[in-house]
Amino acid sequence: xxxxxxxxxxxxxxxxxxxxxxxxxxxxxxxxxxxxEALSLAEAKVARAAGxxxxxxxxxxxxxxxxxxxxANKAYALLEPVEANCHVIARRFGIQRVLDDCHGSMNILDVxxxxxxxxxxxxxxxxxxxxxxxxxxxxxxxxxxxHGEEVIRRYxxxxxxxxxxARAYLSLARYFDLLATARESDVNKETDEVLxxxxxxxxxxxxxxLEHSAKHAQAALPRLxxxxxxxxxxxxxxxxxxxxxxxxxxxxxxHADKIIRRAAKHVPAAVWYGVMAQLISHAAHTRxxxxxxxxxxxxxxxxxxxxxxLWTITYLATSTNDNRKRxxxxxxxxxxxRLRKSAKQAQRDNQPAQKRDYEQSARTLQTAREVFTQFVxxxxxxPVESRREVRLSKFVTxxxxxxxxxxxxxxxxxxxxxxxxxxxxxFPDRAxxxxxxxxxxxxxxxxxxxxxxxxxxxxxxxxxxLCKCEKAGDLRKDARVQDFNGVVNRLLDxxxxxxxxxxxxxxxxxxxxxxxxxxLEWVPRTRKLKQVVDAAYRIVGKKMPVFHSEKVSGPFKRAxxxxxxxxxxxxxxxxxxxxxxxxxxxxxxxxSRFASDPAQWLSARGAFMKSCATWGAVGHCLGLGDRHGENxxxxxxxxxxxxxxxxCLFDKGxxxxxxxxxxxxxxxxxxxxxxxAGVDGAFRTSLQLTLGCLRDHKETLLHVLEPFLxxxxxxxxxxxxxxxxxxxPTKRRRGEKQDAAATLRVVSRRLDGIYNLPxxxxxxxxxxxxxxxxxxxxxxxxxxxxxxxxxxxxxxIKESTSxxxxxxxxxxxxxxx
Length: 817
What we know:
Layout: H1 2-15, H2 19-31, H3 36-55, H4 61-79, H5 86-92, H6 96-101, H7 109-115, H8 123-142, H9 149-161, H10 166-184, H11 193-212, H12 217-232, H13 248-266, H14 269-272, H15 276-281, H16 288-304, H17 306-313, H18 322-348, H19 352-380, E1 389-391, H20 398-401, E2 415-419, E3 422-426, E4 434-437, E5 440-443, E6 451-457, E7 462-469, H21 475-494, H22 496-500, E8 510-512, E9 517-521, E10 526-528, H23 529-539, H24 550-562, H25 567-577, H26 587-593, H27 598-622, E11 632-635, E12 641-643, H28 668-673, H29 682-696, H30 698-709, H31 740-752, H32 769-775, H33 789-801, H34 803-806
Antiparallel strand pairs: 1-5, 2-3, 4-6, 5-6, 6-7, 7-9, 8-9, 10-11, 11-12
């Protein structure tokens, strides 16, 4: 008993990232006489965790893979000193007939489905044996000891031992996905039968694993849907495919439809809600096969979660695209019909409460399109510049909004919760609803004239929404980035070191009304970073120079024009004539704001450093640009920062007239606010932890990003609003069509540790890239080789704080603040 307690303590220490403590606990467990198999399994898990942590010291995929392979080899030696014989294990637990039945088919699912629930011998020993075999097989794959049929058989035996264990299904799915990815670059995707078999098996195992658990849904489900869309769009679009078709691709498409139909019934709708954006982007697909499957999935989500889904799906019915609009209208008719049928069934079952809920949901769907249309009218309204308020009642019928779910991020995001069926994502039980809309709508001063709407929720709180029309941007980018940030937050929360330091990104809801308009959840009690710096100057008794005045803009632009071929001279002129006008003093704002409580001041400064580091790491991986002082907000209560306006993504800032050549914003005023340690204190540690976490979960993040980039309805190639006012509309440059595969390669290399931010020449420069790099001390030349996490962090900080880079930035970016 004492040995088992020590083993449990070792498990907790391993999950908390305290591997030295875990090894000590395991030594105590061995001394107290714990079972040798349980001990070796625990030791193997610690060895693999140590290898994965040690791999972060290396840069690049190859070096990290070698380090992980070495650790996996050691773990495998602990688990299987003598190689396990699958047939012996199968005979031991009475499941040899299962392996015999599926011999040569490379698929055990058909056998399990045909035989039904299985009865096992030695059931108390079966679960530990399955755990041990799966861990050893994962080590075999990571250590690259063997591949192919033998590995597949081992995974299939794990499934046969524990048919209700999602991890075994998903491990085999990832292996088939790995085989398909390795093969597809060398063969024709439309004709290769082996590739089609791998893709089919990957989809099958992903779907079956999701039926048993949603623990890994954030990586598995986007990959399942992406594979489905990728192969369903190949070949001629003639008749519906059949599983008996002699053409391999047509058989794969038929099997894919069958897999998705089964998953739509058995995987909870709240799990499918996580890929709503991906489904909506294909809702009006020209392929009937894809269109039908997506429509059925979306209708089921609306039927089960109508209150949440209407804020995400209704924009199809109000779309400016006729095809999407027709699809949205038919989708709403289908969902309404299903809800009415459910209401009639509830009446027959004598369930009046459920009947009322279904009928209310059907009525809500009918009014949702009208409500969205009214909000679009409000967003597109352009009052005269002197007008500061408009009446909501002239555009929106407030009575129709009453009772709708408040469109807040927390209410629209399913979170894992324990239930009688296990741990599955569910929505909050008592999410607040709209009780009243204020008729006074504030019109903000920016060029798009966005409107700030106030509403009272049923829980007594007051919330604000920003209703805006982005003709030059695309709010769907903001919505996708918020979804990505939600995944990053879950990964950071799973990492013990990041969780202890409270590293996370503050997110907000983005509701798309149509292709140009949307509702954004207002982030309360925040101020723009530019306003914080201005307040700091007033605290020290100075007036902050206006950046567009001749006193500042004149020397800044002259330095860029006169020294376009000599960045060192440009940086010197920038320091002497511009930077000297802006003495960093942001720390005084924190002292003044939190003067009443020194502990609160220390906490606020720490929150500012940690949030800047977390946003910096994520922003660099996404190529996030346009990070000027008005797109970064500072929380007045906690001190943390939150970023807004994600229209300039995937290095589009480098294609602007005056390119953004820093990985993220880290200006002198921000560094001064970090305290005496500057970038070498909590900021560097937080940046290393965040970047290390992102690199450790590279596969998950790429699986999440891929469907976003392949969304043809979003103009990823457009650089956003940054600097567009500098050129007349006829001369504004548009990037070429976004190549999703190329962008994923860029992000993948960054997650491997390669600094690959492009280095465009200064306007009018005649120097080559190598000459520019030499003149700048090699500061911005992209790397050819990967860096470790500490090395990558050092490079990012150096690039972000270098005057050689900041002196070339756009004046409106205010690199001196």
